[in-house]
């Protein structure tokens, strides 16, 4: 098994400790301390079920001990694919307590992504729910169990049907006295995922010290205290929902987390009022949906004090509507699972809040904005964003090629084009590479192209991003068919479903073309071709004065 690690140069590590960013905190100690301080305070609310800090800590420790009793060893990796439920926290804090390492998958992931994550992380177990959003994850887990030699066990919540023989999380328990000592704060606490530059996701190891620093700092910036009520609207496996300030930030503060079953206004607005939610986070498309619904219904969201919007750029026109329509303060967030997180501050000038995506958490977040030649650009000019700091990784797990491309002299090349203002605030201009930021999901154009090329009727395919006022960016696929083939967009979408990938990777626009341009030597430059097709699509959209939905049937 390849070791998991995340390290910083000795001089930087010493600085981060000396300045109090890294304090030797760990996740098992965090929950244990909060449970000791206020065991009867409610930590989690899911529907009509409330779980106190004391009960959460007890359940998690018992579950972690139960895993050790089943033969798991500290350092083993376990894939966690769960929706917004109390069991997510029982599972993750149980893994932390046992010295095991959670690897997070999203509920929308299907066989292709889950198989990749299991193999890449060398996970020995998987924790999931029997069914989520109508999909049989239990059956998928049982199928993978027979295909991946390293996968010893799939643990379910609510096992039924084909997955009835798999163990249920609720039935696993043990003696907490068997749990190991707290881990090294510099060891890897959990593994998150990033969009793949050449297809599938990369693994991002995060340490206890670096990640808990982001929780503590985010709580201070967002004014999260023990009296706060955080609404987990987006999937809890997203870094945004975990740590900005997120569910883990709220638990670090001793606050209460309310788990939302659905983000749609008809379900979310009554929950905000009933549970007194004071702070929550949305991606721009959901924020627009909430704004439109609240505008029409004159919804009363009086408890809500702060709305964080992140994951993709929030346009100023929409940002200016938040306070008058929803009655709360907008806080923009721009960050990444690799580390750097920026917030507008609650006391920033309104123009700064609506027109920028914030400034970094830490005084020791080093920011470079460079031109294509690698030279610094002046404030106010767009350039490539590079960063390093006390919570930004220095390497992906087991990705030699990606590490060479993404890390330069200790700085992480984010792939974003930004403008830095004299105040230190950043305005995001877009992506530099071939990633598409669709509603906060970073999608590799090459990965989608690979799936399209697997269709027997497709000769070639090029995928590009198109600006979209609702999604931020949408996926546009240009497809060249093999001779004699006649396909519709509907056929392509049906085929994508057979590829067992997350639904959000299916192209929004499908445009059929007869040929692609070539370079001077007769070869297709994928990068240049994507640029040309994107430019042509934008010109077509502008001429039509409406977003083109070619062949959308």
UniProtKB/TrEMBL annotation:
Residues 32-396 form the AMP-dependent synthetase/ligase domain. SUPFAM superfamilies: Acetyl-CoA synthetase-like. Its EC number is 6.3.2.-. One of its GO terms (molecular function) is ligase activity, forming carbon-sulfur bonds. Residues 447-523 form the AMP-binding enzyme C-terminal domain. PROSITE patterns: AMP_BINDING. Gene3D superfamilies: 3.30.300.30, 3.40.50.980, Luciferase, Domain 3. Pfam families: AMP-binding, AMP-binding_C. InterPro entries: AMP-bd_C (IPR025110), AMP-bd_C_sf (IPR045851), AMP-binding_CS (IPR020845), AMP-dep_synth/lig_dom (IPR000873), ATP-dep_AMP-bd_enzyme (IPR050237). Keywords: Ligase. PANTHER family: LONG-CHAIN-FATTY-ACID--COA LIGASE, SURFACTIN SYNTHASE SUBUNIT 1. This is 2,3-dihydroxybenzoate-AMP ligase. The lineage of its organism: Bacteria, Pseudomonadati, Pseudomonadota, Alphaproteobacteria, Rhodobacterales. The gene is dhbE.
């Amino acid at each position: 098994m390849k070791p998991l690690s995340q390290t910083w140069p000795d001089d930087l590590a010493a600085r981060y400790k000396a300045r109090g960013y890294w304090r030797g905190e760990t996740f098992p100690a965090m929950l244990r301390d909060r449970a000791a301080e206020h065991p009867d305070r409610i930590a989690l609310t899911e529907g009509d079920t409330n779980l106190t800090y004391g009960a959460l800590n007890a359940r998690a420790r018992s579950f972690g001990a139960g895993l050790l009793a089943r033969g798991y060893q500290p350092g083993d990796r376990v894939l966690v694919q769960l929706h917004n439920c109390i069991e997510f926290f029982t599972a993750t804090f149980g893994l932390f307590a046992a010295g095991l390492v959670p690897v997070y998958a999203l509920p929308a992931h299907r066989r292709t992504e889950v198989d990749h994550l299991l193999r890449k992380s060398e996970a020995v177990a998987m924790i999931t729910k029997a069914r989520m959003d109508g999909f049989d994850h239990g059956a998928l887990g049982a199928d993978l169990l027979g295909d991946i030699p390293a996968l010893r066990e799939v643990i379910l919540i609510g096992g039924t049907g084909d997955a009835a023989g798999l163990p249920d999380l609720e039935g696993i328990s043990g003696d907490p006295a068997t749990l190991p000592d707290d881990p090294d704060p510099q060891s890897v606490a959990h593994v998150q995922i990033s969009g793949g530059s050449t297809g599938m996701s990369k693994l991002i190891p995060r340490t206890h010290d670096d990640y808990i620093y982001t929780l503590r700092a985010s709580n201070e910036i967002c004014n999260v205290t023990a009296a706060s009520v955080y609404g987990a609207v987006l999937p809890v496996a997203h870094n945004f929902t975990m740590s900005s300030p997120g569910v883990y930030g709220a638990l670090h503060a001793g606050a209460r987390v309310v788990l939302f079953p659905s983000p749609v206004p008809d379900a979310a607005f009554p929950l905000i009022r009933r549970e007194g939610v004071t702070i929550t986070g949305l991606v721009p498309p959901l924020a627009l949906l909430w704004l439109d619904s609240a505008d029409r219904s004159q919804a009363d969201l009086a408890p809500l004090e702060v709305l964080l919007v992140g994951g993709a750029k929030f346009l100023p026109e929409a940002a200016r509507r938040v306070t008058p329509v929803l009655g709360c303060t907008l806080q923009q967030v721009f960050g990444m699972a690799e580390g750097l997180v920026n917030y507008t501050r609650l006391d920033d000038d309104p123009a700064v809040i609506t027109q920028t995506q914030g400034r970094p958490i830490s005084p020791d977040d080093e920011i470079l904005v460079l031109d294509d030649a690698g030279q610094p650009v002046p404030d106010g000019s767009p350039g490539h964003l590079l960063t390093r700091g006390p919570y930004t990784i220095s390497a992906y797990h087991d990705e030699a090629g990606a590490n060479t491309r993404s890390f330069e002299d200790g700085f992480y090349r984010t792939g974003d084009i930004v403008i830095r203002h004299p105040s230190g605030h950043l305005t995001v201009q877009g992506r530099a590479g071939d990633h598409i930021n669709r509603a906060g999901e970073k999608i590799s154009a090459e990965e989608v192209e690979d799936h399209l090329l697997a269709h027997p009727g497709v000769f070639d395919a090029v995928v590009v991003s198109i600006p979209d006022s609702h999604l931020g960016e949408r996926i546009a696929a240009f497809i060249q068919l093999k001779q004699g083939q006649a396909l519709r967009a509907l056929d392509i979408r049906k085929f994508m479903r057979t590829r067992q990938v997350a639904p959000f990777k299916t192209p929004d626009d499908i445009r059929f073309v007869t040929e692609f341009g070539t370079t001077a030597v007769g070869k297709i430059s994928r990068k240049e071709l994507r640029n040309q097709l994107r430019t042509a699509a934008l010109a077509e959209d502008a001429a039509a004065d409406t977003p083109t939905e070619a062949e959308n049937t």
